């Protein structure tokens, strides 16, 4: 589980996040929507332990990860993050990416690459892969560390719709079968409505609307857009 309680964060005295609270359950995906500059990436980085908030707390699987002066280091959080840039290592082959982070228990790196349709590409470097293959490698690397949480910062934004659909379905399959709590940042309202289990809208560093277990009711695109515009323009 990912639980964020009243987190505020500033950079160079400029407020980025203001009293943010939300949660993502194991085996489910929370879609985080909002305009550019809303603070979505900063929130993911705080959850991952890459930034320290000014106040508030982050609780991961009932354990305090961030509170006050205490912040557990990223490597102890069992949390993987896939950046928009993917952040692949240009000097490492596909199999080296997996071996570098792989934990010994459970599925092997070889099996993971097969499931991600990267078998036969083990000796390839990132610049020898297609866009879709790079995305699958980023997902495979994230899963190889056997995380309990996955954070995705618009990783599919530059892909065509068919490839994006395939990769998103592949990602969600892993989230649900491996009981991983996940948050995905997206600008795609339809994608959030159709694929995610819960949704939140962030504007100017604040969570303005949060739907928990949205499958309990039907959320329409019109409802989301009206909510988004209301808070964005102060209507």
From TrEMBL:
Instruction: State a single Gene Ontology molecular function.
Output: ATP binding
Residue ranges annotated for the ABC transporter domain, each copy included: 2-229
The keyword Transport is assigned to this record: yes
Give the matching SUPFAM superfamilies: P-loop containing nucleoside triphosphate hydrolases
Q: Name one Pfam family in it.
A: ABC_tran
Q: ATP-binding: is it a keyword of this entry?
A: yes
Q: Which UniProt keywords apply?
A: ATP-binding, Nucleotide-binding, Transport
Name listed for the protein in its UniProt record = Carbohydrate ABC transporter ATP-binding protein, CUT1 family
């Amino acid at each position: 589980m990912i639980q964020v309680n009243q987190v505020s964060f500033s950079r160079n005295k400029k407020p980025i996040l203001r009293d943010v609270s939300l949660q993502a359950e194991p085996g489910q995906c929370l879609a985080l929507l909002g305009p550019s500059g809303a603070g979505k990436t900063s929130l993911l980085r705080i959850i991952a332990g890459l930034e320290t908030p000014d106040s508030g707390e982050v609780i991961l699987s009932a354990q305090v990860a961030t509170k006050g002066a205490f912040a557990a280091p990223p490597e102890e959080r069992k949390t993987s993050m896939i950046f928009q840039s993917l952040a692949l290592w240009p000097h490492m082959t596909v199999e080296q990416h997996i071996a570098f982070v792989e934990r010994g228990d459970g599925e092997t790196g070889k099996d993971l690459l097969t499931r991600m349709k990267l078998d036969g590409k083990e000796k390839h470097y990132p610049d020898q892969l297609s866009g879709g293959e790079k995305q699958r490698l980023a997902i495979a690397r994230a899963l190889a560390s056997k995380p309990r949480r996955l954070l995705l910062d618009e990783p599919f934004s530059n892909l065509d719709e068919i490839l994006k659909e395939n990769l998103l379905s592949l990602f969600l399959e892993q989230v649900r079968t491996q009981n991983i709590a996940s948050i995905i940042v997206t600008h795609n309202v339809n994608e959030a409505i159709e694929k995610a289990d819960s949704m939140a809208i962030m504007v100017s560093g604040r969570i303005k609307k949060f739907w928990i277990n949205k499958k309990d009711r039907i959320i329409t695109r019109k409802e989301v857009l009206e909510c988004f515009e209301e808070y964005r323009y102060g209507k």
